[in-house]
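Key result, reporting period 2: structure in, sequence out.
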């Protein structure tokens, strides 16, 4: 009988250990997943051109926080885009309507219009899309 008790005790101990491990590691794994939706910004152009882009990289808690320090949530950079070489940036936002992509062509003088196109997609839903010879703007409804 002692052997049976030992086996039952060992099985109960192993089950308790597994349950404790699940409690200890379960919530941490759940928090590892980012909250919100994957948002993809895309800029395309009919020919190789440089653009300045401004876009949201992280969602602020509210507009007041954004206004207090916009560059804590957004980025501005100069990029080159051309046929077959779009610019794409992905981030996760709790509310995809916060997404914004402002584009300015750096085209000068007698160079033709780049005919740029931007879009913002969250999941399978197009949040915004725009065509403009030089400077399209795509933004969600929070703007």
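The corresponding designed sequence is given below.
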């Amino acid at each position: 009988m002692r052997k049976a008790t030992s086996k039952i005790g060992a099985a109960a101990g192993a089950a308790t250990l597994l349950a404790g491990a699940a409690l200890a590691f379960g919530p941490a794994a759940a928090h590892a997943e980012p909250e919100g939706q994957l948002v993809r910004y895309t800029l395309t152009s009919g020919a190789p051109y440089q653009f300045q882009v401004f876009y949201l990289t992280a969602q602020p808690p509210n507009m007041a926080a954004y206004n207090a320090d916009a560059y804590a949530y957004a980025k501005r950079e100069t990029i080159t885009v051309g046929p077959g070489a779009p610019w794409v940036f992905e981030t996760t936002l709790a509310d995809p309507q916060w997404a914004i992509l402002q584009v300015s062509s750096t085209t000068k003088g007698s160079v033709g219009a780049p005919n740029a196109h931007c879009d913002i997609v969250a999941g399978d839903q197009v949040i915004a899309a725009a065509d403009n010879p030089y400077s399209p703007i795509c933004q969600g409804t929070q703007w």
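The longest strand covers residues 37-44. The chain has two domains: 1-33, 37-139. This case is discussed further under Risks and Mitigation.
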